[in-house]
Write the structure tokens for this entry.
Amino acid sequence: MERGPEWLFLRIEVPETPAGAGDRSPLAERLWGMIREHRAHRVVLELDRVCSIDDSLIGAIADVGTRVRDDGGLIRVCGLSEPNLSRLQSVVCESQLHHFDSRSAAVVGGDRAIP
């Protein structure tokens, strides 16, 4: 976690070991807790260290995204590989969660989102 002037950056790392890999709801709760603790309304989830995205991680990302938007905030993701991005987009509507190639591109936003 890193705090910027107007953004909260949360880097997600998925451990290689399968212990606890099936349940990501605690991940969503931890992320949401950090967002609330820092009173952040602009959040970037950095996923460049995620080797393989699974349904439970996608669910946690979608859950946090919904909470941030429902609270009037903005959420963006960055750093996914092409296969992981395709998997995320097959489940989460692109209009709800914009992906960028880097943290700086996510902050700038606009039309630089990767479709």
In short: Helices lie at 25-37, 55-70, 82-91, 103-108. The longest strand covers residues 42-46. The beta strands are 2-3, 8-11, 42-46, 74-78, 98-100.
